[in-house]
Amino acid sequence: MCINLNFKKMKKTGIVLSCMVSFFMSAQTHDLVKHNGEKMAVNLIKQETNLVYFSMPNSTEVEKISKYAVASLTNKSNGEVATISNRINCEDKANFNEVVFLEQSQTIGLKKGESINSFFGVTKGQADYDVKKMKKRRLQEKAASLKSPFVVIVSEKPDETKAVLYQY
């Protein structure tokens, strides 16, 4: 009798837990809209720093995408729309301030563009901080003139900096 009651209690607990888990999973369904216009149905897991973690419906594999590639997430259960990032439009060299420097891990979901170099002659007595600032500005100007909103620095030497451009 005691074993039968414990089994019934465990069965009820299991049913309640499975209902809660299935409700939780269905409540996490979102529409992810990328800046390039692509739309995907996903199960949102979490957002961290510059990445969005999700899984595809009917899958448990965790995938990630750069927040810079995602325009918005729409919660399917209540229709709430959350803006993840605004689109960066670099039309010409004058918009160089809009160019964003990213780490390689933050480029998931963005298209890789061309590689660029920046050569910079250092004047004797010039501070390292000023040199780095001028190198970055030169990279931003080159990226903006090529209509690329994202730059990843690949290698940095005293007289040369190599970078890769990324677009939506």
What can you tell me about this protein's structure?
- The chain is an alpha+beta fold.
- The protein has 2 domains: 29-87; 93-167, 2-Layer Sandwich (Dodecin subunit-like).
- The chain has helices at residues 2-27, 128-145, and strands at residues 29-34, 39-48, 51-55, 63-66, 70-75, 81-83, 100-101, 111-119, 150-156, 160-167.
- Strand 5 (70-75) and strand 6 form a beta hairpin.
- Keywords: Signal.
- Residues 1-27 form the signal peptide.
Q: What is the strand and helix layout of this fold?
A:
Blueprint lengths: L1 H26 L1 E6 L4 E10 L2 E5 L7 E4 L3 E6 L5 E3 L16 E2 L9 E9 L8 H18 L4 E7 L3 E8 L1
Parallel strand pairs: 7-9
Antiparallel strand pairs: 1-2, 1-5, 2-3, 3-4, 5-6, 8-10, 9-10
Total DSSP helices: 2
Largest sheet: 6 strands, antiparallel
Helix content: 25-40%
Mean pLDDT, nearest integer? 83
Say which CATH homologous superfamily of the largest domain is assigned: Flavin-binding protein dodecin
Strand ordering within the main sheet = 4-3-2-1-5-6
Rg is 24 Å
Q: What is the overall shape?
A: elongated
The structural domain count equals 2
Strand content: 35-45%
| Alpha-beta content class | alpha+beta
User: What gap, in angstroms, lies between the N and C termini?
Assistant: 65 Å
CATH C-level category of the largest domain = Alpha Beta
Poorly predicted tracts of residues: 19-27
The strand count comes to 10
SSE string, helix = H, strand = E? Answer: HEEEEEEEEHEE
CATH fold name of the largest domain: Dodecin subunit-like
